[in-house]
Every structure is written in structure tokens, then in C-alpha cells.
UniProtKB/TrEMBL annotation:
<keyword id="KW-0963">Cytoplasm</keyword>
<feature type="binding site">
    <location>
        <position position="338"/>
    </location>
    <ligand>
        <name>Mg(2+) 1</name>
    </ligand>
</feature>
<comment type="subunit">
    <text>Homotetramer.</text>
</comment>
<feature type="binding site">
    <location>
        <position position="266"/>
    </location>
    <ligand>
        <name>Mg(2+) 1</name>
    </ligand>
</feature>
<dbReference type="GO" id="GO:0005737">
    <property type="term" value="C:cytoplasm"/>
</dbReference>
<keyword id="KW-0479">Metal-binding</keyword>
<feature type="binding site">
    <location>
        <position position="307"/>
    </location>
    <ligand>
        <name>Mg(2+) 2</name>
    </ligand>
</feature>
<feature type="domain" description="Xylose isomerase-like TIM barrel">
    <location>
        <begin position="91"/>
        <end position="277"/>
    </location>
</feature>
<comment type="similarity">
    <text>Belongs to the xylose isomerase family.</text>
</comment>
<dbReference type="Pfam" id="PF01261">
    <property type="entry name" value="AP_endonuc_2"/>
</dbReference>
<dbReference type="InterPro" id="IPR013022">
    <property type="entry name" value="Xyl_isomerase-like_TIM-brl"/>
</dbReference>
<dbReference type="InterPro" id="IPR036237">
    <property type="entry name" value="Xyl_isomerase-like_sf"/>
</dbReference>
<feature type="active site">
    <location>
        <position position="99"/>
    </location>
</feature>
<dbReference type="GO" id="GO:0042732">
    <property type="term" value="P:D-xylose metabolic process"/>
</dbReference>
<feature type="binding site">
    <location>
        <position position="305"/>
    </location>
    <ligand>
        <name>Mg(2+) 2</name>
    </ligand>
</feature>
<keyword id="KW-0413">Isomerase</keyword>
<feature type="binding site">
    <location>
        <position position="230"/>
    </location>
    <ligand>
        <name>Mg(2+) 1</name>
    </ligand>
</feature>
Length: 439
């Protein structure tokens, strides 16, 4: 049976096509800067948004019409696996990502829960073998169940810490079993509501202990996928410890975890933290920890994680620019659609349209970013803007040949007024617009 209206695999038809079930920009085998689009982008479908969510919001019930909802329990879990592989086939997407609790229902004991998981993981493994689809990453959901009310690795309750460890241990076994290329830690409840009852020092030390245990266990079982931390400043926690890329970087450094972790950066989390997505990608890239991305976008008028499908070409261009400049591009990571259809887009076909929209937005962003790089647009801007550090006193500063005394002597000897150059911001923005429309 088909969960997506018997839609046939989507083909590239080019920007002029009026067929809504076609790619306008995503042409998987097209080579851009020496690599196919498919290999640059490594798209992934997120299980939780596309197969587990029902379209509910805090004020209203689910609206999504999904044929798998005729089942429940393990039958529902199995139907979702079918639906997932059907969608991957329709979209020509090679990767998917899931939380443990997305794929199988919890039982009444941890033993039962794990048995449910094992059964579905075996089914997923068969599907992967039959289709060649791959797991970009898996993760443990340690935020939905009420036991995590005070956190998981940063809880005040040691029993919860132990339970969380057991959960991640199992998730790592499954990561290994399915050949996951990464494993993600997103700490939705790893934060606090008020310092009045919080031992921040202990909580952060415990988080580091927990992550070191994960590193040790992965080594023990021979799981070689990349560990990723996904920063987010808030929601559901009021203050989340992995606030943004820079905060997470300093945490990793302090606790000697930097060799084992990179970041999974999400567009909407960046904006919640008061940054652009490209800011987060730049911070990660400059520090060698850009691992993967969760592709979505927020809404400027809303202050929460709306997880909309990414359609803003300006944003996807700037994101792809950072990824193209990253050593080895997105590497073992990918462009994971951590995005959901709006509550008003409740038909199954909307899930297909939404992914096409996101894939085309990233493909177009890739094309424009590649052209900006080929034409050295930003290189030229930076060369001109920072030219003062190429010769004279600037070159001495960069070479480490200057100190306060030599700089004071220089400043005293140059009595004329200092001249600055225009930043030419409007001209630069107009140039980017030209590339967006013509590249
Ligand atoms: C929530 C996060 C979550 C992670 C995986 O805001 O984006 O979905 O990607 O736990
Ligand atoms: Ni995410
Ligand atoms: Ni998110």
C-alpha cells in the first residue's frame, strides 16, 4: 500500500517546470565545484516530524491525515517504517534520522521498551539492506517522558542519570547495528529553570561525565560514527546548557571532549539564540567542529522553534557558503530536514511538497554559493577591506613583530587624521541579490 498517494519518484525538471512534483533546482548528479549535488547535500528525512508528529500544537489536536494512524502500538511502529522508506524512495533521499522513541513505543519496563526497539531496528536494518538507504544519525529522546522533568544527564536525581545512561547505551548499540554515520546529543531538558534550586557546577560536571562515558562505550563496541552535540538556547528548558556553538565549544574544551565531538547546527536554534544560521556555521567551521546541519527555518514574528521547511534562498545560500568553505564540506554529516509541515498542511502529499521545497532551496543555495566562491566575491571584499594588514604596520602585527611600545611609536609618528574606508554594505547586498537571481 502507498502512504503517499502513489507518488512516483520525483525527477529534476529544471526551473521552468510547472509540475509541483518535480525538482526545479535539485539535480542529484549535477556536478558543482567538483562534486555532485547529492554528495554535497547528503539530505536526510527526520522521522519525528514526518512520521511521528500529528500536527498538534499547545492549543489544538493533531490535524495530520496519515494512513498509518489506522494502527497502534507495534503495528503503528511497523507501518511508519514502511512509510519512511516509501518517502525516501519518492524523494531520492539517501538518509534518515530518528530518536529511539520515534521508532518504537515505550513498554512498561525498560526491558520491554528495549525489546520493542530491537524488533523495529531489525526491521529497519532489513529495509536498509534492501534499499541501500542509510542512517545519518540516531539519538535518544530524553525529554518527552515525565521521568526527565529535571533533566537527563543534568538531573538532580541519580536514578534518572542511570536510566539515561542505559538509554544512550542502547541507542549506541543500535547506531552500531545500523551503521549510523553520526550520533546526536540534543539536551532539551539539559538546562534549568531557576538558579534558586540549581547546582550548575555539578550539573555541568555530570554532563561531561555522561559524555565521556558515551565516548568510552562507543570505543568499547567499535562504533566509529561521529558524535555531534546540537546546541539550542532554550525550549523546552528556559536556559539550555548547550546554548549555541561558542558556548558548546568552550564546554567541550573545558572538559577535554573536543577531540570526540562536532556540532549539529540547526537554523531555527541559531535564530532563537539571537544569531544568524551562518554565524553558527562560521563559529563551528573556524574551530573545526562543523559536523552536520538540521535544516529548517524559524518565523521572524514568532519566538519559538517553529521548524518550518527551509525556503529562504538568502539563508540557504549563506549556509551553503559556509559548508562549501568547510574542510571536506559537510563531511560525514548531512542536511537533515528537522522540519515539519504547518498544521494547516495536513495531507500526506504536503510532506512531499515540503521536502521538495526544502531540497530545491538548498540546491539553489548551493549553486549560488558555488558561484560566489568561483568569482571570489567575498574573497575580494575581504582582501580589500583588510588590506591594511598585508603590508607595513599591519603586516608586522600579523607576523607577531609588534608590541605596545612599537605601536605607540607608530601612532605618535603618524599625526595626521586616520582614514577609514566605506564598508559598502548596500553595494555588497545588491551584489548578492544579483547572484541570487542570475547565478
Ligand atoms: C529540537 C531538536 C531535536 C533534535 C534531535 O528542537 O531540534 O529535534 O534535532 O533531538
Ligand atoms: Ni534538531
Ligand atoms: Ni529544533
Amino acid at each position: 500500500m502507498s502512504y503517499f498517494d502513489n507518488v512516483q519518484p520525483i525527477q529534476y525538471e529544471g526551473p521552468a517546470s510547472v509540475n509541483p512534483l518535480s525538482f526545479k533546482f535539485y539535480n542529484p548528479e549535477q556536478v558543482v565545484l567538483g562534486k555532485t549535488m547529492k554528495d554535497h547535500l547528503r539530505f536526510a528525512v527526520a522521522y519525528w516530524h514526518s512520521f511521528s508528529a500529528n500536527g498538534s500544537d499547545p492549543f489544538g489536536a493533531g490535524t495530520n491525515i496519515r494512513a498509518w494512524d489506522q494502527y497502534d502500538g507495534m503495528e503503528l511502529a511497523k507501518a511508519r517504517v514502511e512509510a519512511c522508506f516509501e518517502l525516501l524512495n519518492i524523494l531520492g533521499v539517501e538518509y534518515f534520522a530518528f530518536h529511539d522513541r520515534d521508532i518504537a513505543p515505550e513498554g512498561s519496563t525498560l526491558q520491554e521498551t528495549n525489546a520493542n526497539l530491537d524488533e523495529i531496528v531489525a526491521l529497519i536494518k532489513d529495509k536498509m539492506n534492501a534499499t541501500g538507504k542509510k542512517l545519518l544519525w540516531n539519538t535518544a529522546n530524553m525529554f518527552t517522558n515525565p521521568r526527565f522533568v529535571h533533566g537527563a544527564a543534568t538531573t538532580n536525581n541519580a536514578e534518572v542519570f542511570a536510566y539515561a545512561a542505559a538509554q544512550v547505551k542502547k541507542a549506541l548499540d543500535h547506531a552500531k547495528e545500523l551503521g549510523a554515520e553520526n550520533y546526536v546529543f540534543w539536551g532539551g531538558r539539559e538546562g534549568y529553570e531557576t538558579l534558586l534550586n540549581t547546582d550548575m557546577g555539578l550539573e555541568l560536571d555530570n554532563l561531561a561525565r555522561f559524555l565521556h562515558m558515551a565516548v568510552a562505550y562507543a570505543k568499547e563496541i567499535g562504533f566509529t560514527g561521529q558524535f555531534l552535540i546540537e546546541p539550542k538556547p532554550k525550549e523546552p528548558s528556559k536556559h539550555q546548557y548547550d546554548f549555541d556553538a561558542a558556548t558548546t565549544l568552550s564546554f567541550l574544551q573545558k572538559y577535554d571532549l573536543l577531540p570526540y565531538f562536532k556540532l549539529n547546527l540547526e537554523a531555527n536554534h541559531a535564530t532563537l539564540a539571537g544569531h544568524t544560521f551562518e554565524h553558527e556555521l562560521r563559529v563551528a567551521r573556524l574551530n573545526g567542529i562543523l559536523g552536520s546541519i538540521d535544516a529548517n527555518q524559524g518565523d521572524l514574528l514568532l519566538g519559538w522553534d517553529t521548524d518550518e521547511f527551509p525556503t529562504d534562498l538568502y539563508a540557504t545560500t549563506m549556509a551553503m557558503y559556509e559548508i562549501l568553505l568547510n574542510e571536506n564540506g559537510i563531511g560525514s554529516g548531512g542536511v537533515n530536514f528537522d522540519a515539519k509541515v504547518r498544521r494547516t498542511s495536513f495531507e500526506p502529499i504536503d510532506v512531499v511538497y515540503a521536502h521538495i521545497a526544502g531540497m530545491d532551496a538548498f540546491a539553489r543555495g548551493l549553486q549560488v554559493a558555488a558561484k560566489l566562491i568561483e568569482d571570489k566575491v567575498f574573497d575580494n571584499i575581504l582582501d580589500a577591506r583588510y588590506g591594511s594588514f598585508k603590508s607595513g604596520i599591519g603586516a608586522d602585527i600579523v607576523a607577531g613583530k609588534a608590541d605596545f611600545k612599537s605601536l605607540e611609536a607608530y601612532a605618535l609618528a603618524n599625526n595626521g587624521p586616520i582614514k577609514n574606508q566605506s564598508g559598502r554594505l548596500e553595494l555588497i547586498k545588491a551584489t548578492v541579490n544579483q547572484y541570487l537571481t542570475n547565478a
